[in-house]
Amino acid sequence: MGRLKSDQGQLFYEFHLSDAVPEHHLVREIDTALDLSWLRSELAPHYSSMGRPSIDLELMIRMLIVGYVFAIRHRSKSEASFVARPPPAHALCIA
């Protein structure tokens, strides 16, 4: 055991989601238009204080909206596909 003689920098990398999403992408417009700050306080009475923490409600709603807008049916595809392709025609009808 002991110290490794080679650098482990290649095992770690820095990633910022804001750098991966283009500046004028529809996801950024949805983010600025959608205010879900009220959600946690509104639904707090329906969640138990015991047990494992639940999925973040705001994140879940945002992922559902992105999945609907970009016609993503599987969660595993959502991370990679929303940046790479343009939105479908029905997504341009958002008022």
Overview of the molecule:
The chain has helices at 17-20, 26-33, 39-43, 57-69, 75-84. With 95 residues, it is an all-alpha fold.
Structural features:
95 residues
The profile of the biggest β sheet is:
none
Order of helices and strands: HHHHH
DSSP strand count: 0
Q: What share of residues are in beta strands?
A: under 5%
Radius of gyration: 19 Å
State the separation between the terminal residues, measured CA to CA.
62 Å
Helix content: 40-55%
Structural class: mainly alpha
Please, how many helices? Answer: 5
Low-confidence stretches: none
Characterize the overall form. Answer: extended
Could you tell me the mean pLDDT?
A: 75
List the helices and strands and how they pair.
Layout: H1 17-20, H2 26-33, H3 39-43, H4 57-69, H5 75-84
Summarize the structure.
This protein has 95 residues and is an all-alpha fold.
